[in-house]
């Protein structure tokens, strides 16, 4: 079983790597993108020239598409529930987390760059250790993450898109709902249309994080690949495989969900992420909303 899960982790890593290798070859048949260079955060893109609503949620794979210049976009969890039961090495620890209104607020700075602020305003974590009999419950707000997304091609046409997203996490959390260190990294997202109405997204990410001993920094390598398809009308669905490689055991999840588009500026979603390895949370379920204005 461990060998099978290790293989899944490798599949997620190599599939994302292959997709990103393909990203070095944008479609030569793509139509020229419209010139939106005159628009900025202070000179709003006309609604008639807006691209289709694209979001970084609900899957874990980030999107290479940016928000049009001068427009805001709010992407948020209405709620998110996570549970995990750790029995490794004779332990018997149950943990759960319930979050409300986790948000990503974006603004388009130019036609190819947007600025994002990610924040978790309300999270409650419960931990129960049946071996020691210790129970704990904490609640408060989390860290703030600043992200800058840069699209290199595909924002306004073509069968593929590619971007870069550097980010920095600021330690603003309460009551131990995170560490007290500045962390950061670089996300490389890619998207491509496939035959039969399918869409593929892939992401590789390198993070610099504080190590568990709090003596310095370590690296984590995140990879994911996702496939989406319209199901009926404005209803769409996706499946995804994601993996985190770090100093300890790999985290591997299988993810799936639904999206529903309401007009040009609103999208609702719901989904679930299932842990496939001991290091992953057993289950995460959520529902959310994205709004462009």
Describe this structure in words.
With 293 residues, the protein is mostly beta strands. It has a single domain, classed as monomeric porin ompg (Porin). Helix content is 7%, strand content 53%. It has a twelve-stranded antiparallel barrel with strand order 1-3-4-7-8-9-10-11-12-13-14-15. It is globular and about 65 Å long. The termini are far apart.
Draw up the topology in text:
Elements (H helix, E strand, L loop, with lengths): L1 H21 L49 E15 L6 E8 L2 E6 L4 E7 L2 E8 L4 E7 L3 E10 L6 E11 L12 E11 L4 E13 L6 E16 L2 E11 L5 E12 L3 E10 L7 E10 L1
What is this entry, summarized?
This protein is mainly β. It is built from 1 helix and 15 strands, in the order αβββββββββββββββ.
Attribute tags:
single chain; mainly beta; twelve-stranded antiparallel beta barrel; 293 residues; Porin; 1 helix
End-to-end C-alpha gap: 48 Å
Count of distinct structural domains: 1
Structural class of the helix and strand makeup? mainly beta
| Percent strand | over 45%
| Proportion of residues in helical segments | under 10%
Runs in which pLDDT lies below 50 for 5 or more consecutive residues are none
CATH-level-4 superfamily name: monomeric porin ompg
CATH level-3 fold name: Porin
Q: What is the average per-residue confidence, as pLDDT, rounded to a whole number?
A: 91
């Amino acid at each position: 079983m461990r060998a099978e899960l290790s293989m899944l982790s490798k599949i997620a890593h190599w599939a994302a790597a292959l997709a990103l290798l393909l990203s070095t070859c944008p479609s030569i048949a793509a139509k020229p993108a419209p010139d939106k260079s005159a628009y900025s955060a202070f000179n709003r893109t006309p609604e008639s020239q807006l691209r289709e609503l694209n979001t970084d949620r609900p899957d874990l794979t980030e999107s290479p598409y940016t928000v049009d210049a001068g427009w805001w976009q709010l992407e948020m969890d209405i709620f998110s529930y996570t549970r995990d039961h750790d029995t490794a090495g004779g332990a018997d620890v149950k943990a759960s987390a319930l979050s409300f209104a986790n948000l990503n607020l974006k603004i388009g700075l130019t036609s190819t760059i947007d600025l994002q602020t990610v924040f978790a305003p309300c999270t409650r974590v419960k931990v129960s250790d049946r071996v020691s009999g210790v129970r704990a419950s904490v609640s408060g707000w989390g860290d703030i993450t600043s992200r800058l997304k840069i699209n290199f091609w595909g924002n306004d046409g073509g069968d593929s898109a590619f971007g870069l997203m550097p980010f920095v996490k600021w330690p603003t959390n309460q009551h131990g709902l995170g560490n007290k260190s500045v962390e950061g990294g670089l996300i490389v997202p890619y998207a491509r249309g496939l035959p039969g109405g399918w869409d593929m997204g892939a992401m590789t990410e390198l993070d610099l994080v504080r190590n568990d001993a709090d003596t310095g920094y370590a690296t984590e390598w995140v990879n994911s690949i996702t496939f989406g398809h319209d199901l009926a009308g404005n209803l769409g669905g996706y499946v995804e495989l994601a993996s985190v490689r770090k100093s300890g055991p790999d985290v591997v999840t299988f993810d799936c969900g639904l999206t529903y588009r309401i007009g040009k500026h609103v999208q609702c979603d719901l989904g679930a992420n299932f842990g496939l390895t001991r290091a992953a949370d057993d289950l995460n379920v959520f529902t959310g909303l994205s709004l462009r204005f």
